[in-house]
Amino acid sequence: GLDESADSRDLVLHLRSMDPVVIGIDDLHRLMLREVGGYEGLRWMLGIFQATAHRHFWVTSLHQHTWSFLFGAAAPINMDVFRAAVRIGRLSSEEMASWIKGRSEAAGISLGFSSLASEASDDPRTLNRIETAYWRLLRDESGGNPAVAEAYFLASLCSGGPGKADILLFDAPEESRLEEITDAEVFTLSALLIHDGLSVELLERVLGISKDELRSACRHLIGLEIIERSEKGYVVRMPWQPVVARFLQQNRLLYAAG
User: Fold this and answer.
1) Alpha-carbon span 217 to 88, nearest angstrom
2) Is the per-residue pLDDT at 159 higher than 90?
3) Which of 16, 72, 99, 134 is most buried, most CB within 10 Å of its CB?
4) What confidence tens digit (pLDDT) does each residue in 35-90 have?
């Protein structure tokens, strides 16, 4: 083991003395904060990667919007230490249907789409067209993001009896709500999306806006059902994430994922 007071040099020496292993680190973006001096934790960890990559195989995950921000011109950090970046791709409507239906079948649940028909019908061709249209709508509204699609799908479910679930139409976010928000609320959404959630205290450090104004902004955004509380503080609600991302990109407050 390694003493808790050990510095980075001790850690590197310890890692180099170990047999080669695969080391995984989840949510690497938690080591940075978009403020002066807020990148030191991430820079330190990247240095550990670079100093031991000849010995160990490092695998880490990073929030997509943080990754895009860090590769932007304004980010004071070098991300070229990674040998390869694997982006979780967008699902097609066919892939989404296969994934969700497979999980439902594994749980012993049969999905029914007849409730989506404008008129009662048991014609297989009609029901197949309705189901295909549902998966296309789900893909379009979620942008192919599996986590967003799952949130929409769960909102679609209605009990159809033992081992069955009827599918209803889900409610998509009303983009017009973003026209009601103040500048402070826009900046709050940008910080929450880039960091994958922040507390009011951390929002104050990132944005330089008073806690009282931030609490007011968060209350309004919760009222609009755009954000919600979590163990991270506040996060953009999953169905709203692609909508908010498009809005911020249009206003040049967020780098496009790439």
Assistant:
1) 32
2) no
3) 134
4) 988 999 999 999 999 999 999 999 999 998 999 888 875 667 888 889 899 988 89
Interaxial angle between packed helices 93-106 and 124-142, expressed in degrees from 0 to 180 and rounded to the nearest 10:
110
Return the sign of the alpha-carbon dihedral for residues 23, 235, 256, 154. Answer: positive
Upper half-sphere CA count for residue 115 (Cβ side, 13 Å): 14
Angle separating helix axes 146-156 and 124-142, nearest 10 degrees = 130
CB atoms within 10 A of CB 91: 21
State how far the Cα of 130 lies from the Cα of 119, in Å rounded to an integer: 12
State the pLDDT at residue 5. 52
Confidence of residue 6 (pLDDT cuts 50, 70, 90): low
Residue 241: what pLDDT?
93
Taking all residues of the chain, what is their mean pLDDT, rounded to a whole number? 91
- Higher-pLDDT residue of 236 and 125 is 236
DSSP string, the chain: ---TT--HHHHHHHHHHSPP-EEEES-GGGG--SSTTTTHHHHHHHHHHHHHTTTSEEEE---HHHHHHHTSTT--S--TT-S-----PPPPHHHHHHHHHHHHHHTT-EEE-GGG-SS----HHHHHHHHHHHHHHHHHHHTT-HHHHHHHHHHHEEE-STTEEEE-PPPPP-GGGGGG--HHHHHHHHHHHHHT-B-HHHHHHHH---HHHHHHHHHHHHHTTSEEEETTEEEE-GGGHHHHHHHHHHTTSSPPP-
Dist CA 104 CA 125 (whole Å) = 22
pLDDT of residue 79: 84
